[in-house]
Amino acid sequence: TPGIRPLVAGNWKMNGTSASLPELRSIGQGFINGLDARTDALVCVPATLLSRAAETVSGTPVHVGGEDCHANQSGAHTGDVSAEMLKDAGASHVIVGHSERRTDHGESDATVHAKAEAAWRAGLVAIICVGETRAQRESGATLDVLSTQVAGSVPSSATAANAVLAYEPVWAIGTGLTPTAADVAEAHAHIREKLAEKLGQAAAAKMRILYGGSVKPSNAVELLGVANVDGALVGGASLKAADFLGIAEAY
Ligand code: PEP
């Protein structure tokens, strides 16, 4: 989108131990060695790795982020991690509303909305995920689903500086399947239109809308070249530096 610097973001999901840090080091090196001129870069890692990941990429243009946060700052929530804790560990961003959280943990749009506000309270950028299931696409409900998710998940105080949207068709995540370029274009244009209704034209025009779902080096040029696609959210292919850098090279 004119005037928007792209963002290529990784999501390691429940993968990665200290043995994975050399891949992250290679990603940092790849951005030092020229990719920084083309796109911003972020890798979201498990909370257990965050502080070491932040050290690993320090001095490079690559940022690190969390994959989820609790809506509260602290308290009796055994096993949960707050946005403030992610910030303290070195995160600049946090993913909220990933479909795996929505499915595995029953997160509603209201939960995602609260988590985005928690991210801002802590000074993090929220990457807010939306996307339809296969059944929803097949029944022709995709645009309605996206409207509902944007209306419910994106707080009205979202700006291009504190939020990034990610369109991730659930059926394309980790499956090797991808929507057609025309379907991606339609979904992204629709999301931007819904953002404009909520936030105003000016804010919506500047907001990054990432595409996510089976992005790899071989399809990145086509998917990232679609109108209103301002970067990628990359799962599986973010675990290997060569693949992640190969995707960023689409820019
Ligand atoms: C994701 O987890 O956000 C994702 C898009 O996964 P993958 O790239 O593996 O489909």
From TrEMBL:
It is an enzyme of class 5 (isomerase). Belongs to the triosephosphate isomerase family. Signal peptide: none annotated. It catalyses: D-glyceraldehyde 3-phosphate = dihydroxyacetone phosphate; L-erythrulose 1-phosphate = D-erythrulose 4-phosphate. The gene is tpiA. GO terms for cellular component: cytosol. GO terms for biological process: gluconeogenesis; glyceraldehyde-3-phosphate biosynthetic process; glycerol catabolic process; glycolytic process. It comes from Mesorhizobium hungaricum. The keyword Glycoprotein does not apply. Substrate binds at N11, W12, K13, G174, S214, G235, G236. Pathway: Carbohydrate metabolism; erythritol degradation; Carbohydrate biosynthesis; gluconeogenesis; Carbohydrate degradation; glycolysis; D-glyceraldehyde 3-phosphate from glycerone phosphate: step 1/1. It is found in: Cytoplasm. Involved in the gluconeogenesis. Catalyzes stereospecifically the conversion of dihydroxyacetone phosphate (DHAP) to D-glyceraldehyde-3-phosphate (G3P). Homodimer. InterPro entries: Aldolase_TIM (IPR013785), TIM_sf (IPR035990), TrioseP_Isoase_bac/euk (IPR022896), Triosephosphate_isomerase (IPR000652), Triosephosphate_isomerase_AS (IPR020861). PROSITE patterns: TIM_1 (PS00171), TIM_2 (PS51440). The active site is at H98, E168. GO terms for molecular function: triose-phosphate isomerase activity. NCBIfam families: tim. It holds the Pfam family TIM. Its EC number is 5.3.1.1. This is Triosephosphate isomerase. Keywords: Cytoplasm, Gluconeogenesis, Glycolysis, Isomerase. Its main location: cytoplasm.
